[in-house]
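User: As part of a screening pipeline, I want to sanity-check one entry by hand. Below is the sequence and the SMILES for coenzyme A. Please return the complex as structure tokens so I can compare it with the automated output.
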Amino acid sequence: MTIAEAPEETKLVSAPGAGHEGQTFLVGDEVYLRGAEEADAKVGMSWRPTLFPVAPELTEEWIRDDLAKDDNATLLIVRKSDDRVVGSVKIDNEGIDHWLEPKVDALYGERGLRWKAEAILLVTRWLIHERGQPVVLLDQPADETVVIEAIEGAGMRRAACFREMLARDGRRVDRLLYEYLSPEWLVTLGDPNDAPLERTGSGEPRPVPPPVTLDGDPPRNAMMVGKRVYLRPEEPGDGVKSALMARQETETFFDIGRHLNSPVMLEKWINDHQKPDLPSWITFAVCLRENDELVGWVALLDVDYQNRFAETGSFFGNPAYRGGGYGSEAKQLLLEYAFERLGLHMVQSWVFFENTRSAAALRKQGYREAGRIHWLYPNNGTLDNFVLFDLLAEEWRAMPRQEWEAKPDA
Ligand SMILES: CC(C)(COP(=O)(O)OP(=O)(O)OC[C@H]1O[C@@H](n2cnc3c(N)ncnc32)[C@H](O)[C@@H]1OP(=O)(O)O)[C@@H](O)C(=O)NCCC(=O)NCCS
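Assistant: Here is the complex for your manual check:
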């Protein structure tokens, strides 16, 4: 069965009653989906997306206080035969795209994977063919063959592969990204797989600059020091500078247009995001060694300490410092921090198609293309695409070490 074909069950309307009886949609062969109820807390560990043990009373509170606010965002996977909750699917919808985050109780083994696949296809069919959405995306561990065969058989397309991203059973496993593009939107917009991806720059990875030997003291509060720039924690006052730089921005292609942020909000963000013991965002201010001027930021985003990966991000607020190798120098310091201090296994990066300079910089820094995903943001009267990259710690360690010339991209 493909995603476009509804299974027979969804067309049946039986008498209202317990379980799936009477439910007219999101009902499959073995499982059906429904919203969470307080009583589902009793088997919370089967479906709540957490690694940690949580008492049913706390899960009940979480259902009432958090989950219930987000209507439709989390659906429970329930076994038809006995109404046992066996998993859940979170539907993350921040922009145009819908990301599915399914979880099925691992204790069910292969049976659970079958239910997971069925739930993915039910939700995808509903979002695309009933709710008219253009694209559904899914993160899928590469070792779940049962799920992969089912979703590929139903027409989902493998769009990207982040190598060795997940830690499972003492092994590293690739994380695959799948997309399902709406057939109706394909007629209107054309197949984005045909969209050309322009590549600028030399495409050649450069050697990693060797560690800098300092004659005197390090720059104030520096954590990583390069030849021309150093990384320090963000500090009060950086938010005000960032807001001023944003008001003077001249380029529009590297994000969905320009941003105007309140300096008060940025200062609060700096203050708040450094507080957790294991922060999910680790942001560094990039400063010039010659005069301590703040010229940009590099960051590890959504750090996953269990699987040991993060997304990398860079932003040089002053356009005078773009295209001159400063971003790549700062990124190499960030990679050293990520791999050698934090112990990450790999990093990933996402780039708008139009941002050819950022993609060229990543290639130069040693990243490899991991694929492309489509229709994630509106642009020029259509929906536009991302090119994705990854870099493994062992690849970065194997890159040659060599001092750069004064202008490394010359
Ligand atoms: C992305 C960014 C951090 C990269 O740092 P950088 O110092 O500019 O990068 P580098 O100078 O080391 O490398 C730039 C590469 O792009 C190429 N390039 C330079 N200017 C370019 C342009 N206008 N268009 C396309 N390619 C360009 C260069 O040739 C170089 O590649 P090569 O050395 O292989 O030839 C920086 O440009 C920036 O802050 N841009 C704005 C914010 C942004 O785009 N952030 C990333 C979002 S994904």
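Points to compare against the pipeline: The mean pLDDT is 94. The chain has ten helices and 15 strands.
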